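Annotated sample (chain length 224).
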Amino acid sequence: MNVTNQSIVSEFVLMGLTNSWVMQLLLFVFSLVFCLAGMLGNSLIVLTVATDAHLQSPMYFFLAHLSFIDIMDSCIGTPKMLTDLFRKQKLISFGGCVSQIFFIHAVGATEMVLLIAMAFDRYIAICKPLHYLTIMNLRVCVSIVITSWTIGISHSIIQLAFVIKLPFCGPNKIDSFYCDLPRFIRLACTDTYKLQFLITANSGFISLGAFCILIISYIVILIT
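Output written by the structure step:
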């Protein structure tokens, strides 16, 4: 019983996107170009907002943090994918796989909360313009960003708390170019149907909730 409960899989094999060298080369070029363009563009936004005195408003404050999150998003799986494209065997350690899952969910949930905060910022600016700077002061903006990260990290920790103790004792091939939580769970040596449903419901609730809040808030703004 003790042996079954222990994870004996120390690394996973990523199956990647394709085995064709031509396709791998094309994917490498396109992915590298888009990754560098995205990181450069977002870095310029962060730098511009930080140095330009005319952009010291809550809207640009949130925009700079959104760009920073996008930079982090580009660094989670893309570098690993680019290096793996030219490797015959694409391996990732157990800890590396768990780290990828953690950062993907933490950054994704943080971005959703920050987008809601930006919608709230636009609502205050349009519907209560005279009180805008009083309501959306620097302390409130910093608190919103901290809250966004707290919710994002908490969501990711909760997701991983369900799966980190699962027994992995055999299959170690992930049919993707990065560690995806649903595929990761399917490799466990136990019945994970209920766990998959719980995790999917958790992520779906956050995504759908954020989407509905954004739609409703911007409808209110447009009507106003």
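Annotation: Residues 94-127 form the longest helix (34 residues).
Annotation: The beta strands are 11-14, 91-93, 173-174.
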